[in-house]
Amino acid sequence: MKTPISLTHTEQPHHEAGTPTNMLRHEHEVILRALALLERMGQGLEGGRPVDRKALGWLRDFFGTFADKCHHGKEEQHLFPAMERHGVPREGGPLGVMLQEHEEGRARVRAMGHDDDRQVAEAIRGYTTLLRAHIDKENEVLFPLAEELPVPASTSGSSPSWPSSKQADPVRAASLLWRISPARPGGAFVFARSRLP
């Protein structure tokens, strides 16, 4: 029987009940939707078409904040250390690979800030390829491994809690993504960000 690795999380009404790895998988779905938008922008740049720089800037912020600081932050500060405590190696093991890919992704997001469309398109292509493969590795290998690890008998007060903020809210992030989705397939991106509760 699979058992979740012991990590407490702060219950929030917008999250489905479940294990930390299920929450991370849910966040992956939101990130993949943003990647699809980013990829279309990159293809536009590669094809010499103008893109909405405001929407591109928002996506860069989304990946730097939600995907990296919030999502990868949960993995790096909570999940990976918990896995290490249960014998999963960082060096020469899956955790080291994940951490290296997090760093590579950060560099690619920074590169999307260039003024040169060709460089931005190259950074987008590299980032989308990297992050899709990274998510597959986590969903198919790392998270099942975490779910197989034993849960300590006593977890009260000893496990870290998930950060809770509007930036870490996958429902809110998905809502914001909807606001910059193309108006129609193949159409221009619409950027209509409004305040959310």
Describe the structure.
By secondary structure, the chain is mostly helical. The protein has a domain at 20-150: nmb1532 protein domain like (Four Helix Bundle (Hemerythrin (Met), subunit A)), CATH 1.20.120. 61% of the residues lie in helices and 0% in strands. The protein has helices spanning 20-46, 53-85, 94-111, 117-148, 170-179. The longest helix is centred in the middle third of the chain and has 33 residues, at 53-85. Mean pLDDT is 78; it is low at 1-17, 153-163 and 183-197.
Residue share in helices? 55-70%
Order of helices and strands: HHHHH
Q: List low-confidence stretches.
A: 1-17, 153-163, 183-197
What class, by secondary structure content?
mainly alpha
CATH class of the domain at 20-150: Mainly Alpha
How many strand units?
0
